[in-house]
Each structure stands twice: as structure tokens, then as C-alpha cells.
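Please produce the structure of this protein holding FE3-S4 cluster.
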Amino acid sequence: MELYANDTKTHDESRQGEAFESNSPKKHFNKFFYVESYGCAMNFADSEVVASILENNGYGSTRQPQQADLILVNTCSVREKAEQTVRKRLTEFKKLKQARPGLLVGILGCMAERLKAQLLEEEKLVDIVVGPDAYRTLPDLIIEAGTGQKAVNVILSRDETYGDIAPVRLDSNGISGFVSIMRGCNNMCSFCVVPFTRGRERSRDAFSIVAECRDLFEKGYKEITLLGQNVDSYYWNNPETNVSVTFAQLLESVAQIDNSLRVRFSTSHPKDITDEVLFTMAKYHNICKYIHLPVQSGSTRMLQLMNRTYTREWYLAKVARIREIMPDCSISADIIAGFCTETEEDHQDTISIMKEANYDYSYMYFYSERPGTLAAKRYEDDIPEEVKKRRLQEIVDVQWVLSNESNKRDVGKTFEILIEGNSKKSDQEWMGRNSQNKVIVFPKGNHSLQKGDYVNVLVNDFTKGTLLGTVSE
Ligand code: SAM
Ligand code: SF4
Ligand code: F3S
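Below is the modeled complex.
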């Protein structure tokens, strides 16, 4: 079970499993691929790299699996439920394959990396298995699979960043784009499978990042989200000049492209976000005042078992520092309920840290043991499922109250909104976000506005996850 008190684009549950299509003219292609993506924003960004590789090899994208010559599923392993969802989809695609011999099905991403050839050899669910660092070899693997050979490449790399590949934007709104700035993760949070599926951390060439952001801006994009599992540890050393670039410097360079280009980033590890980053955020109006700062637990004992390398007090001091430097900054968190040995007292520490940090929203999960992780090796997954679920529900209930209060505080305030498109419910309403990443819906009225415009909106009400307002005259 995964529960959300709000949604942001980097954690958008509504995107899970969605199939995307590029705008490239179909007539250029005589073969088509269909890609479905799961997991974090980095996986969605990777699907755009894969789309670029495939388009350069004669495959166009389609949103119809029935029309595809190649079906790809870009997968997530972070929790067991994520893997179950993918298995179900692969079983459905297997049926499609039986009806259409010649159709190839491939698995990409973290589940491919974790299970390696198992889904191909033992379960015969797929023809192609490609790990996150091996997408360049996909065209060769397609040829191999086409001749009936086992097509598997799950080799992790220490330097692959796909920095030279211009991603093909899949079904983007043309306003907000994701740009990967690094890959992998060197933290060894004991519950987490990511270091095993994504490999060692490496930072992408800063010039290629800024060039990609500038290109997006020139194409009309107004918002860039810089992506990495731990963006604050971004560190790129220019091999030609031996000059290094930190995350704060990179953030500044992207912000300087144009002050009408909004910049966001995700995710920050509390141990790595520096004052330099906070002051850079404060200095630029177009760097959004929103930090996703996963806490995981409010108990120092749990944090130690989780190998998060900070204490409760250290985390709260970081929150205080953010608020001191940027009083208008919103903060969200990831929280895990029911990690190994968690007592009711530890759980209450999580409840109380949520209140003290006063999160605007949170992404809340119960602990799901992942094979091969440090926790799976060292600790027993000893909290009964009903206890995990009860604690998670209590956490969710607290977050609803906090989110509600946060929204209430916004009533009467005017925010600068970037219009992303029509609201989900009506084409008579615009939907956009403020700098703090809150969704705002407001009537179009007679104002001559369009997608991508900035407009000041006065908030007069709110529903569960959305602020409601009117254009401020
Ligand atoms: N790199 C980010 C960080 O350090 O916070 C997030 C990475 S992970 C993809 C996103 C979130 O999934 C984590 O912050 C954590 O709350 C949750 N998560 C990771 N492993 C989990 C597990 N085994 N069970 C439940 N939730 C998990
Ligand atoms: Fe996983 Fe921790 Fe790395 Fe985040 S920082 S990806 S939670 S190991
Ligand atoms: Fe999932 Fe892999 Fe992202 S495990 S959360 S898709 S890095």
C-alpha cells in the first residue's frame, strides 16, 4: 500500500504505468515501439533517453500496444508492490505476444537489473532484458532477440550518464521538463534497493546539462526539474580544466539561462543539502521555493538502523535552517512506517517529527523488505503487516491535518502561477503550480492567458490536494 497526501510531478502516482508518445512525425518510421514507465521521475526521464536511441534506429513511438513491434516496460523495484504490478502487465503482454508472433517484449530499468535474466530464462515473460546503464545496446539486443537469441545486458557502469543523448520528450505538456543530472546512489540506506539497481553515483557533464536546459527553454519550456537520487552530492570535475562544479553552482547556471525559466530539483538527502544550495535558492526568484527532504523516520534509533547518517535533532536543525533562509519555502518528506524493530515509541517519534517539521505534504509507505538490501541481510522484518498498516494510516492522518492547515494558511495569499494546462475537471479552468509546488486551479474567465504563461492568482479556497483561486487583477 502506498499513500499520498498530495502529489508533485516527481512523485506523480497518476503517471505510473502510463504509456507515452513523442511528437516526431510518424511517417519517418516503419517500426513502432510502445513504452510504459513505472517508478520515479528518473525512470520516466530514462524512457525519453530510450526513445531517442530507438528513434535514431528507425523505431517511432506509439501509445497503442496493438500497433507496436516492440513493447518495453521500464520498471521499478523499490517496493514489492511495484514489482507485482509489472509482473501483471508482463503477463498481459505475453498473451498479446502469443497472438502476434514476432512481437518483442522487453523489460528495462530497476527490476531488469535486480532480476537479471530470470524473467527471460525461468519465467519466459520477456525477450529482452536491459538494465539502466545499458540502453545504448538496445538496438543490438533487439536484433539478437529477433533471431531468437537471449538478449540480456544488465552491466552497470561507473561513468554512463547518457549526457550526449538528447532525450525525445514523450507526451510532455511542453512546459515542464525533467533533466537527469546524475545517476546511481552511493548511500547505503539499509532498506533501499536503488544502489543495487542503479549502481554507483556519477555526475553528468555540467555543460551538457545546461545545454539541454537551454534547448528546452528555447523550445518553449518554462520549468526544469533537475533529477538525481541525491542531487546535493552532484559534483562534476571538468577533465579539461580540472575545475569542479557543485550542485549549487549548477543550480545557479540553470537559473541564469532566463529568469522566466523555473528551476526545481529532486531529491535532496538531508545530510548533503548545504547552505550554499539554500542561499542560491534564496538568491534567485526563479528557483522554486520547495524542498523534498525525505526523513524516513523521526526516531534516531530507527535512523541509525536505516543508515541515514543523521539524527532526529540534526534533521530538525536542517529544517530550521531552511526556514530561516527561506521562510516561504515548502517542505515535503518521504516516510516509512514499520521498519525492522520499530516500537510504538519510535512510531510516535515519527508522528512528532512530522508535526515539528510541519510538512506541507508527504509520501508515506510501509516498509517492504527488498532482497539483497542491507536490512534484508541484517534485520528481521518483524513488524506484523497489520501493525505497519495501522501506523501508516496514523501517519497519513497526521499529514492530512498538516496539509490542510498548510492550505488554509494560503487562503488570502496571492501566488505567481505557471499555467500548465486545463484543469482535470474542466476546460473552463486553468491548472498551474506556485513556486512551493502546490497545484492551483482557477477559472479562465475573460483573461487572454495560455499554457506557459505566468499569472498572479489569489487563493480563496482549497479542496483536499488543490488550492482554488481567481486571477488577481
Ligand atoms: N533518493 C531518495 C532519498 O534519499 O530519499 C529517494 C529514493 S526512493 C526511490 C523513494 C522513497 O521510497 C524513499 O525515500 C523511501 O521513503 C521509500 N522506500 C525506499 N525503499 C523502501 C522500502 N524498502 N520500503 C518502503 N519504502 C521504501
Ligand atoms: Fe535509496 Fe538512500 Fe540512495 Fe535514496 S539516498 S536512493 S533512499 S540509498
Ligand atoms: Fe524505482 Fe529504480 Fe526509481 S527502484 S524508484 S525506478 S531508481
